[in-house]
Amino acid sequence: MTDTTNTTSHREPVTVLGLGLMGRALAAAFLEAGHPTTVWNRTPDKATDLVAGGAVLAPSAADAIRAASLVVVCLSDTAAVRDALAPHRADLAGRTLVNLTSGTSDEARELATWSDDHLDGAIMAIPESIGRPEAFLLFSGSRAAFDRHRDSLGRLGNATFFGEDPGLASLYDVALLGVMWGTLNAFLHGAALLGAAKVDATAFAPFANQWIGSVTGFVDAYAAQIDRGDYQAEDAALETHLATMKYLVRESAAAGVDTDWPARLQALTERAIDAGHAGASYASLVEVFRGRA
Ligand SMILES: NC(=O)c1ccc[n+]([C@@H]2O[C@H](COP(=O)([O-])OP(=O)(O)OC[C@H]3O[C@@H](n4cnc5c(N)ncnc54)[C@H](OP(=O)(O)O)[C@@H]3O)[C@@H](O)[C@H]2O)c1
Asked: 266 CA distance to ligand 1 centroid (A)?
């Protein structure tokens, strides 16, 4: 994380709107780093610990917005942000609004029009990681705003800026969450399969983790193939993958484990093969996801 000064006395004032699980963690990280921190929440009780730690609880969202030039909002969804901020759009003039609420890229682009100096962000972390090096946050929107507030935002976790399209951080967010769910579902399916043979998930986990580590190497190689549009099978051809996928489906059925997940993998692969990629690398499956196969 960025920390360019040894003293906290010149830290810029910040406002955090929304004190749910994540908003409280964001406000606590700013406080801990020495930022004068104003907070607001629809249900004010949630500010008690933060106020005890030095935060100022504003009586209204408008008062909170006016207290700082860097305003971070983290509510449950975009509809909540519209509800909470729509009456106060005039107060946002001249301030940087950083929306850390999850939403779609189009919602991010819509909210970007609400302030001259807007950043949309996504938090790739759980609340307890905020302020630690393992937390990473994605930003897009105003480059000037990111540059101006980089140090402050860096106190929440490692901050990456993706460019001036305010929707990009949200797009990265959902794509990365897809990677998480896909990986976890594969692990959970495997745990169910081995569990049917009385193997504990904790016995399976180290092997799953080792294999996930190997798969990260495939990601780099396949990314280069996707960008080149050249799917030469340098490890295994798609038809070889398909043959093994069928074992996963059959083993699942035999063990009484749900076959939906492996059957979907098989169906996607068959579509790629039908489109002519039988001898190509696994990366050619991207053509199915692109809707071209
Ligand atoms: N928690 C995580 O691990 C995590 C990780 C990454 C991203 N995020 C994202 O961070 C955002 C907040 O998550 P969270 O875990 O903090 O959720 P949460 O604990 O459910 O908190 C939701 C917050 O939204 C406020 N809110 C809801 N509707 C509102 C409305 N109409 N007007 C004003 N305030 C409203 C709530 O106020 P009240 O207290 O008054 O109900 C509360 O402050 C979400 O977009 C989530 O996807 C969370």
From this structure: 38
